[in-house]
Amino acid sequence: MTLIDTDYPLVVTDLPGPRSAEYLDHQARWESNARSYPRRLPIALAEGFGSFVRDVDGNVFLDFLSGAGVLALGHNHPEVAEAAAGRLRVLTHGLDFPTSAKREFLDAQISMLPAGMRDRTKVHFCGPTGANAVEAALKLCKTATGRGGVVAFQGGFHGSTHAAMALSGLVSQKEPVADGMPGVHFFPYSYCGRCPLGLRPDSCQVNCVGYLEKALRDGNGGVATPAAVVVEMVQGEGGMIPARRDFVRRLRALTAELDIPLVVDEVQTGCGRTGTWFAFEQYDIEPDVVVASKALSGIGLPVSIILYDRRLDTWAPGAHTGTFRGNQLAFAAGVEMVRIVRRDDVLGNVRRRGEQLRARLGELETNPWVREVRGRGLMWGVELADPVDGRPAGDRAAAVQTHALRHGLIVEVGGRDDGVVRLMPPLNVTARVVDRAADILLAAVAACCT
Ligand code: PMP
């Protein structure tokens, strides 16, 4: 299919279209009740190209979901696809044996770290999901410190396995499942739009992290020194909430002083999403452990790693095994992804298109239902709330999502009560596509939030 982006998006049927409806019926008949995305975005996918995706009825959408942030270079980037295909019929699976593709991938990942971190970093290849890498990070830190507890932050999301879920804020996912990982202590995140301590950003003195600091220093604070503090630089699923700079810097200073490994979960923010390769770079800190997954291959082939300080490398051979840790196609794609990011100044594009999106979304701020527009790079959220009582307006966000889909734009929702409309276009998105998407979203908010 040729891409003429002036012609798209183009929605030619009601949604779901007749063929999508048939696929969705089949899915409902056979697939688990826990399926999620197609409940709110009722389409069956046929083909993707760049920032666009076509459903089985021939409707073409702008994809600002990007496989939940996986498709960093859009659907089927030709050079990345070619690089991956080059490994087919050569070597596809390698457990954790060294291979040329893996070595190049490893070298590429290390080369993207800030210079000061490179020599002290080791990498573990995890099972291919973000959640599995989070599990690995926890096990590494527990083994290295000999401690059990973990500090996590309200509103955070780290995955759907038992331990990753235990670290996540989403109560509805945890409540039905008894006996999650014990020893997790939740502390407030710097969510200034809804300060968990009821303070004001100009006078709060970042008491969210101050509260953690007091608890950890207080012999009667109830929290034993934890094995790790796990944090996102921008809470993604939590509603695109960038952490305050002073929050992150104090957290780094505190954990360094108390010798607590700081784990930065860059599963969603990593690989350029916020305009630097990793979001932590914008805070001028160096974490002890970085968790990366989603966009590592640029094209949706599964791979996940933790990059960590070699002083933590005390775990035993076989401490975190897994069959699917050697996806050679993903490695080859990831090497090509890094090459393209450098060659095409993709990070510069993220910053420029991010500014464009910020300016366009800013037009929404006069709507009384729009509580806040926020984000970093190409990770943006529009928080909708009832103008009278300030409650998260999940119903409006869902309506905006549906309206946008009908007009050819795929967006996600998240945050408290799913009241935040979330946008995550491919990192190489064009100015024209950003403008089209903004037009559709603005019209959707205008139609649904009156
Ligand atoms: N950490 C973060 C910050 C995430 O956003 C996600 C997924 N949305 C995960 C971990 C879990 O990744 P996965 O779904 O690949 O297990």
Biggest sheet: strands side by side, in what order?
4-12-11-10-7-5-6
Strand content: 15-25%
CATH class of the domain at 79-343: Alpha Beta
- The number of strands is 17
Structural class: alpha/beta
Q: Please tell me the overall pLDDT.
A: 97
Q: Going by CATH, what is the homologous superfamily of the domain at 79-343?
A: Type I PLP-dependent aspartate aminotransferase-like (Major domain)
Small-molecule components bound: 4'-deoxy-4'-aminopyridoxal-5'-phosphate
- Summarize the main sheet: 7 strands, mixed
Q: Cα distance, first to last residue?
A: 39 Å
What ranges have pLDDT less than 50 throughout 5 or more consecutive residues? none
Summed up, the helix count is: 15
CATH architecture of the domain at 79-343: 3-Layer(aba) Sandwich
Structural Rg: 22 Å
CATH topology of the domain at 79-343: Aspartate Aminotransferase, domain 2
- Tell me the helix content: 25-40%
Overall 3D geometry? globular
Structural account:
It is a single chain. With 450 residues, this protein is of the alpha/beta class. The protein has a domain at 79-343: Aspartate Aminotransferase, domain 2 (3-Layer(aba) Sandwich), CATH 3.40.640. It is built from 15 helices and 17 strands. It has helices at 18-30, 37-40, 66-69, 78-85, 100-111, 115-118, 130-145, 162-166, 171-174, 207-217, 245-257, 328-343, 346-362, 394-406, 431-448; strands at 45-49, 52-55, 60-63, 121-125, 150-153, 184-187, 228-231, 234-235, 241-242, 262-265, 289-292, 305-309, 370-376, 379-384, 409-410, 412-414, 420-423. The strands form four sheets. A seven-stranded mixed beta sheet has the order 4-12-11-10-7-5-6. Strands 1-2-3-15 form a four-stranded mixed beta sheet. It has a four-stranded antiparallel beta sheet with strand order 13-14-17-16. A hairpin with a 4-residue loop joins strand 2 (52-55) and strand 3. The relative contact order is 0.15. 4'-deoxy-4'-aminopyridoxal-5'-phosphate binds at residues 68, 129-131, 134, 157-159, 232, 236-237, 265, 267-268, 293.
